């Protein structure tokens, strides 16, 4: 599904060039559950942004579904982000004035799905995360864990090939973090490909494979045999 070949990313700061990624090569197959770990400045967020087609590498090659991403036009990249990728963020990014079913429907505004079908699909995704009884509530009427469940439902509504989760438990207490990670595990067992960035070892334990980053390079890759597809 994803193939990285000697991926590099440089940032310019005045006369200084910062090498955020230095020759990253890795393969990710369909239905893998990947965690990316590393200290601040290790390159894990830069790698996540490139994998999610939010940024472009400086060098190397990145193939998504057999297509080289750097050869895609801006319109093609936007279509990939909307059709093939779902994002879950640490801060939820829900619109406060919309109820949760309308928040989940938002990605479907850019598709050809009619409003009735969009509403039905959003309700289906909210039922999948056990929030079918809160459809008309707005985000500030929900707990942090419930808001993250809404964000996961929104990421799922376009039936993406990959879900990217950036520190999805960073604003949650330990009990709620376990509930959210169990939900990700359930999605993975159902066939979803998940790539997650975290700095917490106990969160990374839910993943099949843990990619450890340091100084813009992959330091090591660990496999968790206890995680079943």
Distance between the termini: 16 Å
The description of the largest β-sheet is: 6 strands, mixed
Count of separate DSSP helical elements: 7
- Note the beta-strand portion: 25-35%
Taken together, the total number of domains comes to 1
Give the CATH architecture.
3-Layer(aba) Sandwich
State the name of the first-level CATH class.
Alpha Beta
Query: Could you spell the SSE succession in H and E letters?
Result: EEEHEEHEHHHEHEHEE
Strand order of the largest sheet: 6-7-8-3-9-10
Q: What are the low-pLDDT stretches, counting only 5+ consecutive residues below 50?
A: none
Give the mean pLDDT: 92
CATH homolog superfamily: P-loop containing nucleotide triphosphate hydrolases
* Mass-distribution shape: globular
How would you describe this structure in keywords?
229 residues; alpha/beta; Rossmann fold; 6-stranded mixed β-sheet; 4-stranded antiparallel β-sheet
Please give a structural write-up.
It is globular, with a radius of gyration of 18 Å. With 229 residues, it is an alpha/beta fold. The chain has 7 helices and 10 strands. It has a single domain, classed as P-loop containing nucleotide triphosphate hydrolases (Rossmann fold, 3-Layer(aba) Sandwich), CATH 3.40.50. The strands form 2 sheets. Strands 6-7-8-3-9-10 form a 6-stranded mixed beta sheet, with helices on both faces. Strands 2-1-4-5 form a 4-stranded antiparallel beta sheet, with helices on one face. Helix 4 (115-128) packs across helix 5 (144-156) and helix 5 runs parallel beside helix 6 (174-189). 31% of the residues lie in helices and 29% in strands.
């Amino acid at each position: 599904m994803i193939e990285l070949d000697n991926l590099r990313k440089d940032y310019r700061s005045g006369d200084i060039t910062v090498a955020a990624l230095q020759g990253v090569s890795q393969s990710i197959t369909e239905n893998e559950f990947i965690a990316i770990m590393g200290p601040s400045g290790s390159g894990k967020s830069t790698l996540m942004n490139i994998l999610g087609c939010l940024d472009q590498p400086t060098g190397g090659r990145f193939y998504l579904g057999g297509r080289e991403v750097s050869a895609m036009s801006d319109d093609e990249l936007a279509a990939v982000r909307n059709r093939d990728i779902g994002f879950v963020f640490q801060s939820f990014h829900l619109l406060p004035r919309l109820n949760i079913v309308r928040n989940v429907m938002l990605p479907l505004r850019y598709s050809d799905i009619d409003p009735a079908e969009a509403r039905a699909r959003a309700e289906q995704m909210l039922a999948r995360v056990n929030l079918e009884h809160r459809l008309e509530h707005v985000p500030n009427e929900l707990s942090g864990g419930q808001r993250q469940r809404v964000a996961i439902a929104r990421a799922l509504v376009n039936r993406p090939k990959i879900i990217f989760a950036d520190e999805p438990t960073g604003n949650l207490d330990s009990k709620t973090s376990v509930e959210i990670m169990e939900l990700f595990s359930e999605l993975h067992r159902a066939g979803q490909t998940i790539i997650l960035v975290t700095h917490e070892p106990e969160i990374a334990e839910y993943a099949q494979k843990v990619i450890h980053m340091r100084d813009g390079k992959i330091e090591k890759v660990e496999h968790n045999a206890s995680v079943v597809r």
